[in-house]
Write a structure and sequence with these properties.
Order of helices and strands: HHEEEEEEEEEEHE
Radius of gyration: 21 Å
Largest sheet: 7 strands, antiparallel
Strand content: 35-45%
Shape: globular
Strand order of the largest sheet: 10-9-8-7-6-5-11
Number of strands: 11
Amino acid sequence: KNAEDKKTENQESKEASDKSEKEMPSVETLSKAYAEYIERIAIECYTPEELVFTTIDVNNDGIQELLYAESSVNAAGVYVCFYDDGQINPVGPFGSYGGIKYAPSEGRIISVMDNMDYMVYEVYAIDKNYEKDLVQKFAIEPDSEGNGYDFFWDDEEVSMEEYTEAFAKLQNMDVREIDY
């Protein structure tokens, strides 16, 4: 190989090394960045004494993400914050009367609304620009006659059997609860 090829290989190796360092921040770096972010959120928060937060590796990449909500009431309004090269990238809100769950092996966040008559599970992926992308939706709601329930998968009405089969696949994705 000539000198130019070696120089290019060394530069690519250094860039790959730099990139891997950016992808795996230290615990101290994350702790400091998240603490500063929480302090800023608490100042802007309507009821800072109700602010709840935790860290979880939501997408199984080895980096803990910060999850916070301005209140633990009904686990609504949860934001997932991704750390990327010194920047905090909040995505949300998720959850409503049921909170959120996550499936780290799939890199999915599941927003849950579950009240007396309705149940909605929205499954999101987070893209590289930190935008949430709805990839699946499951819903159960009372039928128009008030005799039972209608079942929906991705906003299309389906039979209870079709719904149950599709929903079982979601439940088999190593779905985990989030505790604050």
